[in-house]
Design brief:
By secondary structure, the chain is mostly beta strands. The model is unreliable at 7-13 (pLDDT under 50).
Length: 558
């Protein structure tokens, strides 16, 4: 069941969804509009029973503006808010009295622009520019005016800190080095306030990942490791050291980092590697080959599932069709192998750029969404597979034409929820329980091809909240509660008689418009003289439909 939680009169036309959506301890903070206060910070509970204006921050101009840059430290949310002082750092504990500007950092009605906020216990570190001009500066705040200060970067002009990563007591960031005339890796030590450049000749670091209180990253045709000091920072692979030259899709696994890379000459094969950040601990697990096929950003992924790592592989093409390989690994060469193939289509197209993949995990299963251009049908196809990492546990769930890849996905009540579009309904909310019948459009919020663009999913214990667009009122908050009768499905809750409403999930005897599912291990009896009807009848393996001998039962299937 989908229920709209904001009344149209409470909301202005807004072509963008609210910019601040945070949920903590059952409270949701969001940007909302009313005709008296304009756009301001509101709050509600997950059932939306206590919707209220948290505070009218900006009493002069239209709204208090942006809340999208935020972080929770201690009991406070810190965010970028605007009032008569311009845009500054604000905090809230969920009460009106506890919602206040931390400090007027840029006086005389000038504003700061906050780019990143990182929580450090009960304090925050953030980057900002003054009056939206000049270089980015680094600040720290304990939530008080006296404790909100700029971190001294005067010895490092134009450093422009960005990409903040906190590891233990050190803040790593990318910063410009005026001597090298390029960005390198820096650290700020929270305990003693020291700032150091931890690299001396590398280009801007990328694909950063932490392990054992160290940062592993790729830069300047090689792999590097740093403990936050110059002495503890070194290159361990690539370049003159040979080995992998970059990291693609790095994942922590069994106290090491596994990733894809192409090795340096003379071993340039595209392979799966592992590293602990040392030369001795960096090894080629398996040569995968076909570099361009594997390295496509549209097809490659590496993710944990059931104690192993799952990744996509070759697109095999033969007379039987086109197949996408799925592989698994436990970090050893002998156990890094293809475990199944997904049949994409019956023909053998050669243009890999027409294939795109997304995936999402749900408990012990991986859902793989594939969109491709079918040369047979001369149109785009959309397929959903699920796998547990084994061949027998891999199944096709859905195959449709003219459906797009989901642009947002989440898990809720043991199922997958996602936003996607088809040619009849536009972008709407879908769900899948891993079966064909259980994969469907939940509701066409804007009937026809008008998009509702569901996004910013917020799963709670029994409720899923999301924002969806209305052509007259802009983005509005919606609530979804799972309904066992969705999509005209009526399935057994227990064994019993067909005519007993307690047998069925919808609490009524199946109608001729419904899909009837007898689930394992239930047994359903049909009494003599009773006429049972259904649109579609399905029985799971192990389920029983007991029809007395000599009795004709009519099912109206379409």
């Amino acid at each position: 069941m989908v229920k709209k939680l904001l009344l149209p009169l409470n909301y202005a036309i807004d072509t963008y969804p609210p910019q601040y959506i945070s949920a903590t301890n059952g409270t949701i903070f969001f940007q909302n509009y009313d005709p008296i206060n304009n756009f301001e910070l509101w709050k509600c509970d997950e059932n939306f029973q206590n919707e209220e204006l948290l505070k009218n921050i900006n009493t002069i101009t239209q709204s208090s503006k942006n809340y999208e840059i935020s972080a929770k430290a201690g009991k406070y949310w810190y965010f970028s808010g605007t009032d008569i002082n311009g845009t500054e750092l604000w905090k809230t504990d969920g009460t009106s009295g506890g919602t206040k500007m931390v400090k007027d950092i840029s006086p005389l009605d000038q504003s700061i622009r906050i780019f990143e906020i990182v929580a450090v216990d009960t304090s925050v570190i953030f980057t900002a520019t003054i009056n939206n001009l000049g270089p980015k500066k680094l600040f720290k705040s304990d939530g008080t005016e006296m404790g909100t200060v700029e971190i001294n970067l005067l010895n490092y002009p134009n450093i422009e800190p960005q990409e903040l990563i906190l590891i233990d007591s050190k803040l790593f960031f990318s910063g410009f080095d005026i001597n090298l005339l390029r960005r390198v890796l820096w650290t700020y030590d929270i305990t003693n306030g020291n700032i150091n450049s931890v690299t001396n000749d590398q280009y801007s670091p990328s694909n950063k990942i932490s392990i054992s209180n160290k940062l592993i990253y790729a830069a300047d045709d090689g792999l590097f490791v740093s403990d936050g000091t110059l002495a503890g920072s070194s290159q361990f692979s690539g370049g003159i050291l040979s080995g992998p030259t970059y990291m693609k899709f790095p994942v922590e696994y069994n106290e090491k980092i596994l990733f894809f890379s192409q090795g340096a000459f003379p071993t340039p094969d595209f392979s799966l590697y592992e590293t602990d950040g040392t030369i001795a601990g960096t090894n080629q697990i398996k040569i995968l080959g076909d570099y361009f096929m594997f390295s496509s950003a549209n097809t490659l992924f590496l993710t944990k599932l059931n104690g192993k790592l799952i990744f996509s592989g070759h697109l095999n093409q033969n007379n039987e069709g086109t197949f996408l390989e799925l592989w698994s690994t436990d970090g050893t060469n002998e156990n890094t192998n293809k475990f199944t193939e997904l049949k994409i289509e019956n023909s053998s197209p050669t243009n890999i750029n027409n294939y795109n993949i997304k995936y999402v995990k749900n408990e012990n299963e991986l859902f793989v969404f594939v969109k491709f251009y079918s040369t047979n049908l001369n149109k785009f196809m959309f397929k959903i597979y699920k796998t547990d990492g084994t061949n027998n546990g891999t199944h096709l769930i859905l195959s449709r034409t003219n459906v797009d890849l989901p642009y947002e996905m989440t898990t809720f009540d043991g199922k997958i929820y996602f936003s996607t579009q088809n040619s009849e309904n536009g972008y709407e909310l879908w769900r899948s329980d891993g079966t064909s019948l259980g994969t469907y459009l939940i509701k066409d919020l804007n009937p026809g091809v008008i998009n509702s663009n569901p996004k910013y999913f917020m799963p709670f214990e029994n409720i899923l909240l999301f924002w969806a667009f209305h052509p007259l009122y802009g983005f509005e908050l919606h609530q979804y509660i799972s309904n066992p009768c969705e999509a005209d499905k009526n399935y057994t809750m227990q064994s019993g008689n067909w005519s007993d409403p307690n047998t069925w999930s919808c609490q009524h005897v199946p109608l001729e418009s419904e899909i009837v599912i007898i689930k394992n291990p239930h047994k359903v009896n049909v009494s003599l003289g009773y006429k049972a009807v259904a649109n579609i009848l399905c029985t799971e393996m192990g389920a029983v439909l007991d029809i007395p001998a000599g009795v004709l039962v009519e099912f109206k299937a379409n």
